[in-house]
Amino acid sequence: MELHGKQLIGFDVQGDGPPGIRAGDPRSGQLLAPSYHHATADEIGRAVSLAAESRLPLARLNKEQRAGFLDAIGGELARREEAIVTRAHLETALPEARLSSEVGRTVSQLQLFADLVRQGHWVDARIDTALPSRQPSPR
Fold first, then answer.
1. Distance, C-alpha 119 to centroid of its chain
2. N or C: which end of the chain has fewer CB within 10 A?
């Protein structure tokens, strides 16, 4: 996993804004590469537009597709665990074992959510038979 300090917007890497923020190693105080670029107004606008465009296609996914999406995210996190833990350790000085368990916990939560989606619990559909029918009264 190579950090480049730019925005991922859609399938594009953009970094038109100036470099700004740098992470630091809390043990040594040394600044870490890369510098993270500030997003420009155009980059923010494009990200917002793409998010709005993706809303309806995502809403149309069936429960297996939604669960598969969550599984794919968890799988990518698990696949990149070593790189994530290495960088997080540099930036936080937290023990690698703890950081690894946090990645595992996140992957497990995504699997749990995927299972709930497959079972249909997210729909929360209910039929209340205790209420009388709401038919209009004859006049």
1. 22
2. C
Closest Cα partner for 107 from 74, 73, 80? 74
Instruction: Provide the token pair at 70.
Output: 């969550």
Report d(CA 42, CA 21) in Å as an integer.
19
Q: Other C-beta atoms within 10 Å of 37: how many?
A: 19
Query: How far does CA 30 lie from the centroid of its chain?
Result: 29
- Residue 83 near residue 96, CB atoms below 8 Å: no
| 70-98 per-position pLDDT tens digit | 999 999 999 999 999 999 999 999 999 99
What pTM does this model have? 0.78
Instruction: Show the beta-strand stretches assigned E in 11-109.
Output: 12-14, 19-21, 36-37
